[in-house]
Amino acid sequence: MRCISPAESANDNERMTAMTMDTRIALPTDTEIELAADLLKRGGLVAFPTETVYGLGGNGLLGDAVEKIFQAKGRPMDNPLILHVGDWPLTETVCTPSPLAQKLMDAFWPGPLTVLCPKTGIVPWQVTAGLPKVALRMPNHPVALRLLRRAGVPVAAPSANASGRPSPTLAVHVLTDLAGKIPLILDGGPCQIGVESTVVDVEQDQVTILRPGLVTREMLEQVTGRPVEVAESTLRPLQPGETALSPGMKHRHYAPVAKVFLVPDEDPIPRLRRCYREATAAGQRAAVMCFTEDLPALADCNPYDLGGRHHAETMAQRLFAILRQVDEAGVDVVFSAVVPPEGAGLAVMNRLGRAAEFKQVK
Helix, strand, or coil here: 11? Predict the structure, then answer.
């Protein structure tokens, strides 16, 4: 990787048409934010940190720029994207939120909540995969907000990883997946939350969680004063021909190269040990993902620490980094404990389930 100067980066947009390009990581100084914002306005791509994961941003009003996102990630274009805004006035240009949707935005923005609303005609079809609603959020990260406000346009931004891979929570994760495919990565340090935002659909008076995150069902119900539904597709694969209403629902997601299997036992230690021994005996390099409390009992099973059994927020923060670590270690197969899909645990199990393609040890 060759580092290029800020002056050279002004020509990054022209290099986007090349098969490969120089990719540089930059600290988010005022100069770099200015360069990144200019790149976005001119139709280029920029990876940037949010409080959830790193995003790969392109001008959400330019269909060609949005298509570059799909190309860089290798992402199927039937998978909708989220538009990110840094100012409230931009919201009205891209969607028409209902009073209930606006109430949720007021309560949780800036923050890790994405709201689906009817889109306006200014939104290119590439953003929504042709669907009538657009997913919108305002991130709660100082670098993201500075960039979005300086760019002055809604920015389409899925996670900044190769399609299907674990989402990036460090700038180096982005570089690993997208080096040579994008010109610039703004390094804002580790992401605080570690899993993508909660995505909700608002239909009349009903709120439905399409993708769980750290804004939980209980938190939403406190604001709405009414029951909130959870789409049953959050904990199963989409069926053939089923439409993905939210990012993160369709195709293989969040998965390492290693095969992941879920071990849904209340006391997972015996089965984790047995699975590890059988895989090792079969010549596979195996690992287990377990709770902090179970590490001593599984010390000889190549364990990775998910976090405390009752600390789902910690698991969310660690999960994607662990899935990348097992690949770096050359692991072939991973057996993972599971957590109850309640509160923040629902977000953990949604990601872990999709990483395992919902395969369980029987």
Answer: coil
CA distance 47 to 186: 6
Q: How many CA atoms lie within 13 A of 30 on its CB side?
A: 0
Hey, CA dihedral for 169, 175, 176, 182, is it positive or negative? positive
- Name the region of 102 (left: φ>0; alpha: ψ -120 to 50; beta: rest): alpha
List, for residues 188-214, the tens digit of each pLDDT value: 999 999 999 999 999 989 999 999 999
Q: What is the DSSP letter of 167?
A: P
Both structure tokens of 95: 């969607």
Q: Are strands 155-156 and 82-84 parallel, antiparallel or unpaired?
A: antiparallel
Q: 54 and 169 in contact (C-beta within 8 Å)? A: yes
Rounded Cα distance, 196 and 185, in Å:
18
**Alpha carbon separation from 351 to 127, 155, 212, 323 (Å, rounded):** 22, 24, 9, 11
pTM above 0.70, yes or no: yes
Are the beta carbons of 82 and 135 closer than 8 angstroms?
yes
Tell me what pLDDT residue 362 has.
79
> What are the residue ranges in the chain where pLDDT is below 70?
1-19, 237-252
